[in-house]
Amino acid sequence: MAWFFLALAIAFEIAFALGTNATRGFTRLWPSVLTLLAASGGIFTLSLALRTLDVSVGYTIWTGIGSIGTVLFGALIYKERITLPKLLSFAAIIAGALTLKLAAGV
C-alpha cells in the first residue's frame, strides 16, 4: 500500500506544481482552491506512504518523479520547451530513484 500512496502523492504533487502556475499568484479563486487541495492531498498521502517507507526513499522519489511529471506536463499544458539538459536531468533523477528503491530492498 505504501507504493500506492506514494504514487497518489506524486500525482497530487504534479497537480500542485502545475496548479500553482494557473493561480497567477493566487489571484484566481478556483485554481487557487484546487492547488491548495492538491498540496494538502500530496502531503497527506506522502505521510501515509512514509508509515512504511524510509523518509529518504519516499521523499526523494516523491520530489524526483514529481519534478519529472511537472516538466513533462508543463511541456504539454504550458508549451514549455524540453531541452537536452532537462532530458539528462530526467535520466539522472530516474536512475537515482531506481537506485534508492533497490537499495531499500522494497
UniProtKB/TrEMBL annotation:
It is a multi-pass membrane protein. Belongs to the drug/metabolite transporter (DMT) superfamily. Small multidrug resistance (SMR) (TC 2.A.7.1) family. Coiled coil: none annotated. It comes from Actinomadura logoneensis. InterPro entries: EmrE-like, Small_drug/metabolite_transptr, Small_multidrug_res. GO terms for molecular function: transmembrane transporter activity. It is found in: Cell membrane. The chain crosses the membrane at residues 29-50, 57-78, 84-104. Pfam families: Multi_Drug_Res. This is QacE family quaternary ammonium compound efflux SMR transporter. Keywords: Cell membrane, Membrane, Transmembrane, Transmembrane helix, Transport.
